[in-house]
Specification:
The chain has 165 residues and is mainly alpha-helical. It is built from 5 helices and 2 strands.
Length: 165
């Protein structure tokens, strides 16, 4: 059967002649397969979106109840903060000071442990990237000295701020 719009696609892989399309290009089996794949992907995304909107339309009352509960809890939290905010702020400042002082003391202790070890004298740039890289870096003297200096500055800053208050 020969139709004027179709060519012999068994011989040259063309499904439609150029004159049969709106853009005057030849449609091959490969182009048709790619277009069908794109159309299938679009339809599956559309189906997924429709399922999401159907789920939302079925459960709108649960979502609304969740929002109302969240608003109630937020209001309660704000109301509670009115009475215990000062306690929470001072507790946070005290814990920050304690944590920084503890880390400073631990870093100073580790620095005194590794300062005279010969293997700990190398530069951090001389450490090879291995699975034990972090362990190797933490065994260096300069690492703990840097931690001591940084934490010491932070501790002095926090102390000066607390004295100023």
């Amino acid at each position: 059967m020969h139709h004027p719009f179709y060519s012999d696609y068994k011989s040259n892989n063309d499904l439609l002649k150029q004159e049969a399309t709106a853009t005057n290009e030849t449609i091959t089996q490969d182009k048709l397969k790619k277009a069908m794949t794109a159309l299938g992907a679009f339809l599956s995304v559309r189906d997924f979106g429709e399922r999401i909107f159907n789920d939302i339309s079925d459960t709108w009352w649960m979502i609304g109840a969740g929002y109302i509960i969240a608003c109630g809890l937020s209001f309660f939290w704000i109301f509670l903060m009115r009475f215990i905010a000062g306690l929470m702020v001072w507790t946070s400042i005290g814990l920050l000071y304690t944590l920084t002082a503890g880390l400073f003391g631990y870093s100073l202790h580790r620095y005194y442990l590794v300062k005279d070890i010969a293997d700990a004298q190398i530069s951090i740039l001389e450490v090879n990237f291995t699975p034990d890289y972090l362990k190797d870096v933490l065994s260096l003297r300069d690492t703990w000295l840097a931690f001591v200096i940084i934490l010491g500055i932070i501790l002095v800053f926090i102390t000066l701020v607390l004295i100023g208050i």
